[in-house]
Amino acid sequence: MSKKILNVAVIGCGEVAQIAHIPNLIVASDMFKITALCDISKQSLELCSKRFGIPNTFTSVTDLLASPISIDLVFILTADQFHAEHIIQCANAGKHIMIEKPMAQTLKEYDLVEQARIKNNVVIFVGYMRRYSLALKRLKDEIKGKKIKYVRVRDIIGNNKYFTSQSGQHQKYYQDHPSSSSEELKKRIKLNLVENSGEESSVSEKDQKRNEHSWSLLHSLGSHDLSLMRDILGMPEKCLFSSRSNDQDDKSWWWNMAIDEVAVFDAHVEVYTNDSRVKIQYDTPYVKGLPIKLTIQKQLPNGDFSEEIVRPTYVDPYTLELPLLYDAIVNGKDYKTKPLDAKNDTILVKMIMDALVE
Fold this sequence. Notes:
Layout: E1 6-11, H1 15-27, E2 32-38, H2 42-52, E3 57-58, H3 61-66, E4 73-76, H4 83-92, E5 96-100, H5 107-120, E6 124-127, H6 134-143, E7 148-158, H7 160-164, H8 179-197, H9 205-219, H10 221-233, E8 244-246, E9 252-254, E10 257-260, E11 265-273, E12 276-282, E13 293-299, E14 305-310, H11 317-330, H12 339-354
Parallel strand pairs: 1-2, 1-4, 2-3, 4-5, 5-6, 7-10
Antiparallel strand pairs: 7-11, 8-9, 11-12, 12-13, 13-14
Protein name: Gfo/Idh/MocA-like oxidoreductase N-terminal domain-containing protein
InterPro entries: Gfo/Idh/MocA-like_OxRdtase_N, NAD(P)-bd_dom_sf
GO biological process, one term: NADPH regeneration
C-alpha cells in the first residue's frame, strides 16, 4: 500500500521559507509535496518558484484557497501580526496548518484560533522546533524525579544575518510589498500592544517604542525559551521580577535574552538538581547539521567529578518535527504544540512585562 503524500501550500516565501521549510519539505518527499506558493512580494514568489520548481503562485491567501489546486496542509510563514488571521482563513477552508511561532499576538486571537481548530477538525501544529529535539527528551529523562534547585535559561545570540549568510541557501530579501500592508502591520503592532498591556495613550512615544520592542523580542525570539521552559518545568505561577537596560540605541536587553553583534549562538537551558547539572545547548537552526548537545555533570559516589557530553543526532529539529506533523494529520496522533499550549507564552510575556522594574 502506497504512503499518502500530503499536498502543501507555503504562505510566506521569506527567510525561514527559503532557508529551512521549503528545502526540508522537498527532501521529505515521501510525506509532502509542495503544490503552491503565496506571498505579497512578487519577487519572492518568482525566486522560490524558479529555484524550487513550484509553478503555482499566488499573491493573495484568498485566491490561493479559492483555487482548484490540491492542498491538504498549509505552512504559514508570514509576519507574526497576520498569523491568526491566516490560520483561521485556512482552517475554515478545511486545511491543516503548520504555523511558525508565535502562533498569535493576543489572548483573544489564541481563543479564536482554537475555536477554528475545533470547528473544522483540523491540525494546527505550532512550530516550536526546539521542543522536538532529541536532546530535550534526554534532559527530561535525566532530571525526572529529582528536586530542581535552580534553572538558567539563556538566549544571547548574534544578529541573524551572521548565520543566515552562512546557511548555504543563497536566500534573497525583497521589499516589493504593497505600502498598504506595511501600514497595516504597524497599525496591528500598536493595537496588539494596547490589547495585551492595557497601555494608555498617556505613555510617551519613546516608552511606547521601547515596549513594542520588548514585547516583540519576548514574543518572537523569546517564545522559544518560554515554550521550552514550560515543557521542562511546567507553567510558572507568576513572575517576581524582570528588568531591561536602556542603552543609547534605545534597545531592550533582557536578563538572559538579547541580540548582539557577535557571531555566536548561545541558546541553552541548564537545570541544577542536588546531584547533577544538565545543560542542553542549541545552535543556530539556519545552518543544517549542527548538533544539539546535552552536557551532564555529576559527582560520582567515589568523589570523582564526571562530565558527559551526549549528541543524540545531527538531524535538525525542523526536520525532526516533520514526521510528527505528518502523523498528527494522517494517523491522528497527538502532539504537544497546540494553540492553547502556545497561548501560555503570551500569558508569560504579560507576566514578565507586568513585573518590569525600570
